[in-house]
Specification:
Chain A: This is AP complex subunit sigma. The structure holds two protein chains of two kinds. By secondary structure, chain A is of the alpha+beta class. Chain A has one domain: Beta-Lactamase (2-Layer Sandwich). Chain A is built from four helices and seven strands. Classes of the chains: A alpha+beta, B mainly alpha.
Chain lengths: 140, 838
């Protein structure tokens, strides 16, 4: 089960965070800083899976953005690794420009893909379909 | 209103801003417009500016301007950061409900603002201001833009600032008919509300309505939120709704409904009865999203209850069929990820098969072919394929698969190890670690690769490799492996050192081919990583050396040279000091077949020990060792002992109580009991060891059973040791037992017996022991364990004088290891027939 999903930039600022298991708000910032520190300190040759407390962290770097997913023990790390890539491709597809200014849309996409810690949809077209409808509705 | 063009503009403004403008206000605006120019582009901020100018005096009870905005000069300021929002005084009653919603900074602009802030303080300021406005906006109720406000609030919340005041707003937005509002409202509910807040129950009704509404998107939203933060009560209330949705035609809703069901089952396990029946039917779906969700649901159900597990065993053929189609039909464009068709679904099905096939012959058999097929057909050039393969391997390992299949799995893992991608190597190492217990020989084949992985720069990889290498050591490869591991120990990062050192020592103990090799290995470990070894390594080594009679000379030579080089590694120093003390004569003899003989002078040895004593780096325990060693050398080495006497007298006034006591006692030995010195400082007999930690636990059970047999043994050894000491004594019986607390002799036997209180099972009562009987003196030990404190053992020593005459100068000293606290020894006996109890 996915415990949390973070998008962090290189300076360590959180751009997106989604928790699938409740964590207190002050503990969240602590958690995020620690997680980010361990991910940022790894070089390119090190592998993308880290063990942190009782989670496993799987991270991937895309230019200046780190995507970190925390999972529990039962998940297949490589599948999650693939999933992160899938997610980024979907984002690329939808957003022609910088992601960060449309945070709510990113949330919608993430909600389409992951429900309560489980992956629900990975097909790009189907994920973006409701969004496109939404867009059309708000434009009209 | 006039037909002034500006007022027409005003009315259009009004339309823009969505609220009608009463006459008075428009006139005011007119006036102001004449004063200040109107730029159509930047209408909003300027209009705001006008309002400020207009307002003058106290701008309504709820005005949230920055201070001093009543002056028109502050217009510039408002333009810059302009998102102020005025309230036109419902409290006044003069103006009507028309409000200027001018502000509503869009989310993007806010984000840009925040990112533009250079310092933390600045960012906080920006956010606090915005929060204040948002709060006001919520209070006043602004239907049009509240979703925007909430979105901003959520962003701020994500950054870590408190946002609890948005909760009620979420509820309002959820209840609103507009989709954009609902969307943000549900998102807010997911992020801000959870079980612990009281407000969450209020959503239940809204969700219920939305679920039954029939608009897919809305239902999807509701399900999403429900699955994220639904509490037990909510789940119970809404379970029938969700169940209905499971059967709806639209796949969009169904896939979400299935996963919501997963959440509900997690929260309220009783609901699994409701969700069990639809599963089998849902498995026949073609839609991958639904399949994925269903498989997860079944996994969850099976994990929770064995009855469900039984029930779902019958769907194994169906699952097998689905997976086969997936693998065989190649990739359809919609689901393939880099050449593998829907790896996510494949992985989930494999995981479910694993759970279903565990410990169940029949299902495992059905799966065998399929697994072999998947394993061979998957394209491994990309990560997706590897992910599927990895899951296949895990499944093969867990179910009762054919032997050939298992070998295939191990080979796949071996192949992974050779892969250049570090991620894959990591998962391979982790899985091999799990396998090494059950398929030891298969994993052995990949030993060289594993050992290579030790040298990875990556910390997680090298740690895994270390664990795996330690698990792979067996009697045939112990020499080679230890060589590698020691090489690794020299260069490995500090956090792995302790594990590596103890691992090597353990492996050496279990598989040492010869004693000499064993001693060598331990010596090498102590030299390289002495500070990281466990405490009992010293005792173990001492015992080992003591037991290897033929190697005394060799060990003492090696240790001496090691010590001469470096006196900083405490365990090494302790062992070396002990050895030199015991076998100093062998050292000076200078003959040793096995290693280069050193020509050592007596003075050099003494000088070295003194150096150890005086060095800053030595711990008090080490100093104790050195002191005792010096003392022992006084008998071993020939020549005068002035130097040693000197040292003892110096240390007689040492600050450390332990050392002082020792020195004083040794001094006494020199002065008053010189005739006893040789006897007291004789060579140590073989220590009976408790065995390594692992064996001790295994032994405990045996010990309890064989207590009666164990009893005579300690008696014997104790008695024999005492006899040894007493053999050379002339005169009445006197027991002077060797003082150093590290003497494991009698203490060891006590450890045996004292281990029992620490064992979890209720300890058996220990019978009395007669430990010594000779020349009219009888010593009995009786053991009593007070019922209140199981860790406390009271040992009573009863000395009986059975001879006819007096027994004088009777000293009874007990040596116990430091872990036991001994209450004082009291009493002495003089007259015949008297019993003294201590």
């Amino acid at each position: 089960m996915i415990k949390f999903f973070l998008m962090v930039n290189k300076q360590g600022q959180t751009r997106l965070s989604k928790y699938y298991e409740h964590v207190e708000i002050n503990k969240r910032t602590l958690l995020e800083t620690e997680v980010i520190k361990s991910c940022l300190s790894r070089s390119n040759e090190q592998c993308s899976f880290i063990e942190y407390k009782d989670f496993k962290l799987i991270y991937r770097q895309y230019a200046a953005l780190f995507i970190v997913v925390g999972v529990n023990d039962t998940e297949n790390e490589m599948a999650i690794y693939e999933f992160i890539h899938n997610f980024v491709e979907v984002l690329d597809d939808y957003f022609s420009r910088v992601i960060m200014f449309n945070l709510d849309k990113v949330h919608i996409i993430l909600d389409e893909m992951v429900l309560n810690g489980c992956i629900v949809e990975t097909n790009r077209a189907r994920i973006l379909a409701p969004l496109l409808i939404l867009d059309k509705m708000s434009d009209s | 209103m006039d037909s002034n063009p500006s007022s027409q503009k005003l009315s259009s403004e009004g339309a823009l801003l969505g609220s009608p403008r009463p006459v008075r206000q428009s006139r005011r605006l007119e006036v102001v417009k004449k004063i200040l120019p109107l730029n159509s582009k930047s209408q909003r901020p300027e209009v705001r500016g006008f309002k400020i100018a207009l307002q003058g005096g106290p701008g309504g009870a709820g005005s949230h301007n920055r201070g001093g905005e009543t002056e028109g000069s502050d217009q510039a300021r408002t333009f810059l950061g302009a998102w102020t929002r005025k309230r036109w005084g419902e409290s006044r009653g003069v103006e009507t409900e028309a409000r200027m919603v001018a502000s509503s900074l869009k989310l993007q602009d806010l984000i840009q603002e925040i990112r533009g802030a250079k310092t933390q303080a600045q960012e906080r300021e920006v956010i606090q201001k915005e929060c204040a406005h948002i709060r006001a906006s919520f209070r006043d109720g602004d239907p049009l833009h509240s979703h925007r406000q909430l979105a901003k609030l959520l962003y701020v919340h994500m950054l870590g600032y408190p946002a609890h005041f948005g909760q009620m707003e979420c509820l309002k937005l959820i209840a609103s008919p507009r989709f954009t509002d609902k969307r943000v409202g549900y998102l807010g509910a997911m992020l801000l509300l959870d079980e612990r807040q009281d407000a969450h129950l209020l959503i239940t009704n809204s969700i219920k309505n939305d679920l039954s509404q029939g608009i897919e998107a809305v239902q999807g939203l509701a399900l999403c939120t429900l699955s994220a933060m639904g509490s037990a009560e909510m789940c119970r209330d809404l379970a029938p709704e969700v169940e209905k949705l499971l059967l709806q035609p639209s796949p969009y809703v169904r896939k979400k409904a299935v996963l919501t069901a997963v959440h509900m089952i997690r929260k309220v396990p009783e609901l699994s009865d409701i969700f069990l029946p639809p599963c089998a039917q849902l498995l026949h779906e073609r839609h991958h999203g639904i399949l994925l969700g269903t498989v997860t649901l079944i996994t969850e159900l099976c994990e929770r209850s064995p009855a469900a597990l039984q029930h779902f065993r019958k769907v194994v053929p169906q699952l097998v069929h689905t997976l086969r189609t997936l693998v065989m039909t190649g990739c359809s464009a919609e689901h393939s990820v880099s050449g593998v068709s829907d790896p996510f679904l494949q992985v989930q099905i494999l995981r479910l098969l694993r759970i279903l096939g565990r410990n169940h012959e029949e299902s495992s058999e059905t799966m065998n072919d399929l697994l072999a097929q998947v394993a061979t057909n998957t394209d491994t050039s990309r990560n997706a394929g590897n992910a599927v393969l990895f899951e296949t391997v895990l499944t093969i390992m867990d179910i009762r698969s054919a032997a050939g299949l298992r070998v295939l799995a191990v080979n796949i893992l071996g192949r992974f190890l050779l892969n250049s991608d570090r991620n894959i190597r990591y998962v391979a190492l982790t899985s091999l670690l799990k396998l090494v217990q059950s398929d030891h020989s298969a994993v052995q084949r990949h030993r060289p690769t594993v050992v290579e992985c030790l040298w990875e720069p990556d910390a997680s990889l090298s740690r895994r490799a270390l664990e795996l290498s330690l698990a792979l050591v067996n009697s045939s490869n112990v020499r080679a492996m230890t060589q590698e591991l020691q090489g690794f120990l020299e260069s490995c990062p500090p956090d792995l050192r302790a594990d590596c050192a103890s691992g090597i020592l353990l492996a050496a103990e279990r598989f040492a081919p010869t004693k000499r090799w064993h001693i060598d290995t331990i010596l090498r470990v102590l030299t390289t990583a002495g500070t990281y070894v466990r405490d009992d390594a010293v005792a173990n080594l001492i015992q080992l050396i003591g037991g290897a009679q033929e190697l005394h000379a060799y060990s003492v030579h090696r240790l001496y040279s090691a010590l001469a080089e470096d006196i900083s590694q405490q365990p090494l120093v302790q062992v070396a000091a002990w050895c030199i003390g015991e076998y100093g004569d062998l050292l000076l003899e200078g003959t040793c077949e096995e290693t280069e003989p050193l020509q050592v002078e007596k003075e050099e040895v003494l000088a070295l020990l003194e150096r150890v004593l005086q060095s800053q780096m030595s711990l008090p325990a080490t100093r104790g060792y050195a002191l005792t060693a010096l003392m022992k050398l006084s008998t071993r080495l020939h020549g005068d002992n002035n130097r040693i006497c000197q040292v003892m007298s110096i240390y007689g006034s040492c600050q450390n109580v332990e050392l002082q006591q020792r020195a004083v006692e040794y001094n006494a030995l020199f002065r008053k009991y010189d005739h006893l010195r040789a006897a007291v400082l004789e060579k140590m007999p073989l220590v009976e060891r408790g065995g390594p930690q692992v064996d001790e636990e295994a032994k405990e059970s045996k010990e309890v059973a064989q207590l009666s047999e164990a009893a005579p043994l300690p008696t014997e050894t104790q008695a024999s040791k005492l006899l040894d000491l007493l053999d050379l004594l002339d005169g009445p019986s006197e027991n002077a037992q060797h003082p150093p607390p590290l003497d494991p002799t009698p203490g060891d036997t006590l450890i045996h017996l004292l281990d029992l209180p620490c064992a979890p099972r209720p300890p058996a009562p220990i019978p009395n022991l007669k430990v010594f009987e000779r020349e009219g003196l009888e010593l009995n030990l009786s053991f009593v364990r007070p019922p209140g404190t199981p860790t406390l053992l009271l040992i009573t020593v009863t000395a009986t004088n059975t001879s006819g005459g007096d027994v004088t100068h009777f000293i009874c000293q007990a040596a116990v290891p430091k872990v036991c606290r001994r209450p004082g020894l009291r009493g002495s006996l003089d007259t015949p027939g008297e019993k003294a109890t201590k």
